[in-house]
Amino acid sequence: MANKFEQIVTDIGIASYPWLNYPDDQYSTPGDYKLGLILTKEQAAPLMKKIDETHARAKELGKGKKVSPNNLPYKEQLDDQEQPTGNYILNFKQKSKINMKDGSQIDIKPMIVDSKGRKMGNEQIWGGTKCRVSALLVPYLRGSNYGCTMRLKAVQIIDLVSSKNGDMSSHGFKEEKGYESPDTDSATKDEVPEEAEDF
Questions:
Q1: Domain contains 186
Q2: Closest by alpha carbon to 44, among 20, 19, 14, 69?
Q3: pLDDT for 132-180, tens place per residue?
Q4: Residue 52 falls within a domain, yes or no?
Q5: b/e map of 16-55 (b: 16 or more CB within 10 Å)?
Q6: Comparing 190 with 108, which gets the higher pLDDT?
Q7: How many domains does the chain have?
Q8: Torsion angles phi and psi, residue 197, rounded to 5
Q9: Cα–Cα dist 28/32, whole Å
Q10: Beta-ladder partners of 40
Q11: What CATH number does the domain containing 51 carry?
């Protein structure tokens, strides 16, 4: 019988370091799709309660053994002075490939839809995007460590931030006196996607 994991759907929050167009393989191969979602304390509280409950159930998987907890998949957001902002960051992820019992692999990717529920194309999704997340709360025991992971299933984009709607102000520039390109439009529009490590 398949495991039954609790599904959660978040309020609308702000994406932080999203890897939704392709997986992050810097620390693992073949890599993970993931993002942090910034929510207010009020928005995050009921979700954190569910996470804590799932985390406690994960400890029961190691009943009779000496086990230690891994970090919870949420934390307080800190500002540049390392002071709490009052918001929380919830971390979601999904492996990009799943190993099957027969030795084969299948590709997995979260569903990305727009505000109307239509599947999106290849639009680049950057930090600052407003979105809602659907995920499964999965308790686990790995060796002597237990915890809860939020398995990323789908993301609804409410307000997209990407290279297509960026301009010079999004890079911290402002208009100055000096050289002007003959094509003034191309001087202020960001039309070239950044490399992955710049996200």
A1: no
A2: 14
A3: 999 999 999 999 999 999 999 999 999 999 975 555 554 556 677 776 6
A4: yes
A5: bebbbbebbeeeeeebbbbbbbbbeeebbeebbeebeebb
A6: 108
A7: 1
A8: -70, -10
A9: 8
A10: 87
A11: 2.40.50.140
Q: How many residues does the chain have?
A: 199
Please indicate, yes or no, if residue 181 is contained in any of the structural domains: no
C-alpha–C-alpha distance, residues 90 and 10, integer Å:
10
Would you say residue 198 lies in a domain?
no
Token pair recorded at residue 199: 């996200």
CB count within 10 Å of CB 60 equals: 11
Sequence-ordered list of residues with C-beta below 8 angstroms from that of 129, at least 6 positions apart, any chain: 14, 15, 18, 157, 159, 160, 161, 162
Contact 112, 162 (CB under 8 A): no
Which domain range does residue 91 map to? Answer: 6-168
Q: How far is CA 172 from CA 181, 188, 197, in A?
A: 19, 12, 19
- Please give the pLDDT value at position 63: 87
Q: What pTM did the predictor assign?
A: 0.79
